[in-house]
C-alpha cells in the first residue's frame, strides 16, 4: 500500500492488542521501522520541531485504507506532523482471522494513540476520521478525552444512531453462511469492476471524480489475505452501535463536515448530532455535490476546511 502514498512518505508500524498496525508518515528516507526500535528513533530525529500532530483514521468498507485521506494529508505534511494508519484488518496492517467487535477497534485505536503520544507527539493529538471510524474516535474521546485536542469528523455514523438502524448490507441468511459469505466478498469486492461499481454507486456523488488510482488503491487493499474478516464484520452489522448516547457527553472541540449527497448517513443526521451537543460541535459544514467521502471526492475543499479548523481558537466554549 506504500506505493499509493504521497511522495516523501514512508511506512512504519506499531503493535496493538490485535497485531501490527502499519502507518504512513513523512520520513527522511523510505525505510520501514517499528515504534520503539533504534531505527524508528533515528528516523524521527528530524521531527523534533514541535509540529502539531494530526492522526488520520480511514473509514470501513471493502478496500478501505489510509489512502482515503492521502490527498488531504499530503497538503498538511508541510506544517503538521502527519500520521495515517491502516487499521487492523485493512490495508497493509495485520489481518487476524477473527469475528471482529466494536470493542476490538476501540482497543486498537486507543493502543495506537497511546503509542503516538508517548513516542512521537508528547501530548494529545488532533484526530481526523470518517464515517464509522469517526464514530469510534468520538466514542473514545468521551472515555479518554486526554488523548485529543480537537476532532475533525466527516459523516460520522454508528449506523444505529438515534435508534434507527441502517440495516444489514447483505441478507442475514447469506452473511451468516460459512463459505458463502466469503465467496460473495471475493466476487463482490476483489475485482476491478466490483470496486469501481461500489465507489461510483455508493461512495461518490459524481463518478467523473473517480480516478484509476483510487480504484487501484481500493482493489489492492481488498485483495490482501484475510481482508474478508473485517469487511464482513462490517457488512453483517456486527460493529454497529448508537452513537447518540455517547455523543451527548462529548467534550472535545469538534468540527463536522458532511457530504451533501452522502448515502447511509444523510445530512439530516449530521444536523441532529450538531444540535445534540453544540458545546462540542463548533462547526458543521456541508460540502455540496459530494458523497460520504468528501476527503476523497473533494480533497481540496476538505483540506482547506481542516487547515482552518486546525488554526481555530477553541479554548473558549460557546455559551
TrEMBL record:
Enumerate the UniProt keywords alphabetically: Acyltransferase, Hydrolase, Transferase
Q: Which Pfam families match?
A: Abhydrolase_6
AB hydrolase-1 domain location is 54-304
The record's annotation in Gene3D superfamilies points to:
alpha/beta hydrolase
* GO MF annotation list: acyltransferase activity; hydrolase activity
- Known InterPro entries for this protein? AB_hydrolase_1, AB_hydrolase_fold
Q: Which SUPFAM superfamilies does this UniProt record tie to the protein?
A: alpha/beta-Hydrolases
The identity of this protein, by name, is Putative hydrolases or acyltransferases (Alpha/beta hydrolase superfamily)
**Which species is listed as the source?**
Phormidesmis priestleyi Ana
Amino acid at each position: 500500500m506504500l506505493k499509493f502514498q504521497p511522495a516523501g512518505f514512508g511506512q512504519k508500524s506499531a503493535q496493538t492488542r490485535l497485531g501490527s498496525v502499519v502507518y504512513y508518515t513523512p520520513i527522511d528516507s523510505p525505510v520501514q521501522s517499528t515504534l520503539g526500535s533504534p531505527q524508528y528513533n533515528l528516523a524521527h530525529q528530524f521531527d523534533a520541531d514541535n509540529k502539531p500532530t494530526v492522526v488520520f483514521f480511514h473509514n470501513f468498507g471493502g478496500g478501505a485504507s489510509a489512502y482515503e485521506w492521502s490527498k488531504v494529508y499530503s497538503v498538511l505534511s508541510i506544517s503538521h506532523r502527519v500520521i495515517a494508519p491502516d487499521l487492523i484488518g485493512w490495508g497493509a496492517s495485520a489481518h487476524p482471522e477473527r469475528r471482529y467487535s466494536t470493542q476490538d477497534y476501540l482497543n486498537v485505536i486507543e493502543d495506537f494513540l497511546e503509542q503516538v503520544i508517548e513516542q512521537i507527539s508528547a501530548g494529545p493529538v488532533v484526530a481526523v476520521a470518517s464515517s464509522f471510524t469517526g464514530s469510534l474516535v468520538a466514542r473514545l474521546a468521551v472515555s479518554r478525552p486526554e488523548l485529543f485536542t480537537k476532532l475533525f469528523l466527516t459523516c460520522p455514523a454508528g449506523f444505529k444512531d438515534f435508534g434507527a438502524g441502517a440495516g444489514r448490507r447483505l441478507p442475514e441468511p447469506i452473511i451468516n453462511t460459512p463459505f458463502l459469505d466469503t465467496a460473495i466478498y471475493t466476487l463482490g469486492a476483489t475485482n476491478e469492476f466490483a470496486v469501481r461499481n461500489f465507489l461510483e454507486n455508493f461512495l461518490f456523488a459524481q463518478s467523473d471524480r473517480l480516478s484509476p488510482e483510487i480504484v487501484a488503491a481500493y482493489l489492492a487493499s481488498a485483495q490482501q489475505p484475510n481482508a474478508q474478516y473485517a469487511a464482513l464484520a462490517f457488512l453483517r452489522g456486527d460493529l454497529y452501535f448508537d452513537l447518540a448516547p455517547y455523543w451527548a457527553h462529548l467534550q472535545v472541540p469538534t468540527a463536522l463536515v458532511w457530504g451533501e449527497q452522502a448515502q447511509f448517513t444523510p445530512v439530516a443526521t449530521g444536523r441532529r448530532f450538531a444540535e445534540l451537543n453544540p458545546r462540542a460541535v463548533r462547526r458543521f459544514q456541508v460540502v455540496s455535490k459530494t458523497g460520504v467521502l468528501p476527503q476523497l471526492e473533494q480533497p481540496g475543499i476538505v483540506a482547506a476546511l481542516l487547515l482552518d479548523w486546525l488554526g481555530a481558537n477553541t479554548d473558549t466554549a460557546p455559551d
